[in-house]
Design goal:
With 432 residues, this protein is mainly beta. Helix content is 10%, strand content 54%. The chain has 3 helices and 20 strands. The strands form 3 sheets. A 16-stranded antiparallel beta barrel has the order 1-2-3-8-9-10-11-12-13-14-15-16-17-18-19-20. The chain has a two-stranded antiparallel ribbon with strand order 4-5. A two-stranded antiparallel ribbon has the order 6-7. Helix 1 packs antiparallel against helix 2. It starts with a helix and ends with a strand.
């Protein structure tokens, strides 16, 4: 039952009890002891409607300490990771939620970023690394230097509930697949770092378009569906489609009361990625334009996920694959291959997380294993093993510590070492 409906019913019952108590106080004989002041009840429900239509602001954030437990001479340092132990605020995500009309709801989520300050670019001719510095003088105080950052819009949608089996959502939304992508708030996640198979974005993280979803309940079981159509993927897919093909996707989730929780889901997505380069040329008193494809491929993504809970034990698992077939005129160059062009690819991976919630201090030790077969011929396999401890310090605060070790044993890349990576993270994540 939705939280707002529960709140509505609770307030209605409270109003009934209040009215009945007042009647008993006025008439001890009980002539109208069971009477209800309907006007007051309607007034209370109207106030609740007004509260529901208010703008709700909430969010989450996290603070992480990271250090790498490797020799200082490791080839991974400087090229990919900082050799220096570091504190960082990773996520500051804000939500704006509002019931804009009966049956209409809206949600906007955005992440505040320190980027692009510190972003590095490498010169292909000299190999020199340049770091962006966004330092500017504060216009309110010319003696103070500040570094400006950016905003990443995670989702912004409005939806209409036409029927319990059909809700239509329009805007930018989180792609409905798996476990990590949907439950992406750091306070509710077991671990600190996303599995590599999630970070590689074999599915698009979010999309812009239309989504339809609904749930059918039969007995104590349920089946939920999602159908999506969007711009697909591209360099500016949040607001511009660069081809005639739309991205199509879907998801089915089956839930049953087996054990304490049983949920299994399957997801799919297919679309065309297109990147174009445009140019203008004046010739014979006319403007000639080109709009060439510089990168283009058709992709198919498939995934399955499983979540089990029995007493204090929890198991999460996902398996994801992605196939890419490049267009003849949209195959990018890759100097690490013999042909000098990036080949068609099939990437896939999986992870399994096992955890147990102990009865002391909200502690949850966990282990996680990962395997990723990448799209890069020179770096075919990545293996990861990790363990950690999650502590629910309060309903709003989660403390975590995690140790991970990754291997790329089959790497023949000139830029990806075949030596292992060991990292230690500690994090505080909270909601507000």
């Amino acid at each position: 039952m939705p939280d707002r409906l529960i709140a509505r019913l609770s307030l209605a019952l409270a109003a009934v009890s209040c009215a009945a108590g007042q009647a008993r106080a006025q008439d001890p004989a009980g002539a109208e002891a069971d009477g209800v002041d309907e006007a007051e009840l309607v007034d209370q429900l109207q106030k609740l409607d007004e509260q529901d239509s208010q703008l709700h602001i909430y969010g989450f954030a996290d603070f992480t300490y990271t250090t790498f437990l490797m020799p200082r001479s490791s080839k991974w340092f400087d090229a990919y990771f900082s050799r220096y132990p570091t504190f960082a605020v990773g996520n500051v995500n804000l939500y704006l939620e509002k019931k804009v009309a009966p049956r209409w709801n809206s949600l906007i989520e955005f992440r505040l970023l320190y980027l692009p300050n510190g972003t590095e670019t490498v010169s292909t001719s000299t190999g020199e690394v340049a770091q962006m510095d966004t330092a500017v003088l504060d216009y309110q105080d010319k003696a103070e230097v500040l570094h400006w950052g950016g905003i990443s819009i995670e989702r912004a949608w409005v939806e209409y509930q036409a029927h319990p089996l059909l809700t239509i959502r329009a805007g930018q939304w989180i792609t409905p697949y798996g476990i990590w992508n949907i439950d992406h708030g750091s306070p509710v996640l077991i671990g600190i770092r996303r599995p590599f198979v999630i970070g590689l974005s074999l599915f698009p993280k979010n999309q812009t378009g239309l989504e339809a979803y609904g749930t059918h309940t039969f007995g104590d079981k349920s089946l939920t569906y999602h159908l999506t159509v969007s711009n697909g993927r591209g360099p500016v897919d949040t607001y511009l489609d660069l081809d005639y093909n739309k991205g199509i996707g879907g998801r089915l989730v089956f839930e049953a009361p087996w054990l304490d929780e049983f949920r299994i889901g399957v997801s799919g997505y297919t679309g065309t990625y297109t990147r174009r380069a445009r140019s203008y040329n004046l010739a014979l008193n006319a403007v000639q334009t080109t709009n060439d494809v510089t990168e283009g491929y058709r992709e198919l993504s498939l995934a399955a996920d499983l979540k089990l809970r029995s007493g204090p034990f929890l198991l999460n698992a996902e398996a994801i694959s992605n196939q890419r077939v490049y267009q003849d005129d949209g195959r990018p160059r890759d100097f690490q291959t013999v042909s000098g062009q990036l080949p068609d690819s099939h990437s896939y991976g999986t992870y399994v997380t096992g955890a147990v919630r102990l009865p002391w201090l909200g502690l949850m030790p966990y282990v996680q294993g990962e395997l990723l077969r990448t799209q890069w011929p020179t770096v075919p396999n990545i293996w990861v093993a990790g363990t950690g401890l999650n502590m629910r310090a309060s309903p709003s605060v989660t403390l975590k510590v995690q140790l991970q070790r990754a291997w790329v044993p089959d790497s023949v890349s000139l830029v990806v070492p075949d030596e292992p990576v060991t990292m230690l993270d500690a994090q505080a994540a909270w909601v507000f």
